[in-house]
Amino acid sequence: MPKLILEIPIINGCGTLSYLDTFDRLEKMGACFGAWVPKSIGPYSRDPGLREKYGWGIEKPGNPNPVVVHTGHIQLNSMGLPTHPVESWIEEFESTPLRKPIIGSVYGNKPEDYARLIGMFDKYVIAWQANISCPNKEKGEKSIREIMTSKSELIFAPLRDVTKKPVFAKLSPAEDYVGLAEILKEHVDGFVCGNTEPGLVIDIYSRRPILAGIYGGMSGPATKPKKIKMVNDVYDVIKGSNLQIIASGGIESYEDVIEYAIAGASIFELGTCFAKTLHDGRVIGRTNQEIVNLTKRIWEGIQNFLIEQDITLDKLVGSLVK
Amino acid sequence: MRNQYRHLRIEKIIEHNERTRSFVLNGNITSNPGQFVMVWLSGIDEKPISLSSVDRITVRNVGPFTAALFEKRKGDYIDIRGPYGNGFNVTGKNTLIGGGCGIAPLMYLVEKNAASGMVLAGRTKSDLIFLDEIIERIGANNVIGVTEDGSYGIKGLATDASIPRAEHHYYMCGPEIMMKKIGEKLSNEGVDPSFIYLSMERYMKCAIKECGNCSFSGYSVCSDGPVFRYDMVKDLPHFNEKHRTRTGELRGLKE
């Protein structure tokens, strides 16, 4: 079974930073990421032949604004999977050579879409995340999580034929993720634990949801204990195998990374920490330089901790004493 | 804890011309000139808008969102989060170059006494928003108007004006092509490109660095900008060339 080994076990969460020009800029500035995860590629094409053959659309604009709302404790996003055609993704991959490897992410509207998209983009990536758990939706549609969770085996079983690279299933904390991990562990090389789960923020003046997509996926430090548990629950399913866990949920310091490693994860996603909270409670985005500094601080913190504790990251993974 | 929005009442509406209005709000937004806010109209949409003063936004009616904003009357409420972005450095005496609605964020600098000279450019005289206020504050001798139809000042484009020398910096806001041409013109005239700043615009979604949609050759307009130093952007591949649309697709600005 292929394993995903990164020089630095820190990556961006799928759907954050998103595009290759930003990755290019950040790696030139010395950001400590081990790989880049572009925004999920979906079943959309400029080619009428392909659209006809596979039943694909041209593009997907995602939800109108507001797509993000922050309550001070927790961030909710409702991007709604904005997606441009596969052809313009190919142009983007071809025109932006990166030094760090890419972990691709795909989603489909049908189970077959996943294998098709992975086949198309396999040469650009070193591993795959298959998004079967995005909670967001546009008005009138079902979320990927609602459509795909029950069809997961149909999605993953054929993937060994289209890629030799490690495939991770991105799970939702809002589903029976332990049951799903049990079913999928035969077909995948690991799990991303996990996607966001939906919450609701209401504007008290208009009595409407603030997010145009109504519900938004919750992320940030307040979600961390739940995700730590999720990682540890899934680790109990894969213990003793070669499968890996990518952790996602509120990481903003080296201590968070170590905690997730002890719970069972070996790769760590950053996302919500690309914004920061000011003293007056206002949340603003970090500059590129602040992201570079943050990732350096986290990576140095991890290395120092491992030296101090005289342990390797591998040994730490899943070392929770229960 | 509350969400990030402030629910503010419209105290006054200024009609600059048939397409451009300012909305004065009943609360100050602690901010620097050049910063922007996200204006949310519940049930409609949310867009980035520049502050033209500590309590004022200035908007050109260009689409459904701004059309809905133009329906608002004195006493109505809008919701605002922010301010976001870096803004201009408000020190010393600077030369400002504004094109059309790009004059708005520069007006905030004029109010902060940070301007010694200014070029205002537009298609016609009524596009030169805040003209009278700017003349009153920095003196008619220091204000150069440029209109494409010759209805005020020099007939032509901003680049046809003789740009007043600045004691400190040059601050531009307007169409990207204008800012590129003015940057080139000033550089050719011997101005150090690192003393020239410009304010960028891209399709904005989250405004807090997360989504990547407002990426401008790898810099986020929401958080690394919107104000950039000209010498840092002049050779970037997206400058005056490419932007990301609402789907995130990288497209030519002229497509």
Compact summary:
By secondary structure, chain A is α/β, with parallel strands linked by helices. Chain A is 33% helix and 16% strand.
Descriptive account of the structure:
The complex is a heterodimer of chains A (322) and B (255). Chain A is an alpha/beta fold and 322 residues long. Chain A has a single domain (10-61, 80-199, 218-316), classed as TIM Barrel, CATH 3.20.20.70. Chain A is built from eleven helices and 13 strands. Chain A has helices spanning 20-28, 48-54, 86-95, 111-121, 144-148, 152-156, 177-184, 224-238, 254-263, 288-309, 313-316, and strands at residues 10-12, 68-70, 75-77, 103-106, 127-131, 167-171, 190-193, 197-200, 215-219, 244-248, 267-270, 275-277, 283-285. A seven-stranded parallel β-sheet of chain A has the order 1-11-10-7-6-5-4. Chain B is α/β, with parallel strands linked by helices. In chain B, the strands form four sheets. Chain B has a seven-stranded mixed β-sheet with strand order 10-9-8-7-11-12-15, with helices on both faces. A six-stranded antiparallel β-barrel of chain B has the order 1-2-5-4-3-6. Chain B has a two-stranded antiparallel sheet with strand order 13-14. Chain B is built from five helices and 17 strands. Chain B has helices at residues 64-70, 103-111, 131-138, 176-188, 230-233; strands spanning 6-17, 20-25, 36-41, 45-53, 56-60, 77-84, 94-99, 115-122, 143-147, 154-155, 170-173, 196-199, 215-216, 219-220, 227-229, 242-244, 250-252. Chain B is globular and about 50 Å long. At the A-B interface, helix 1, strand 2, helix 3 and strand 13 of A face strand 4, strand 6 and strand 14 of B.
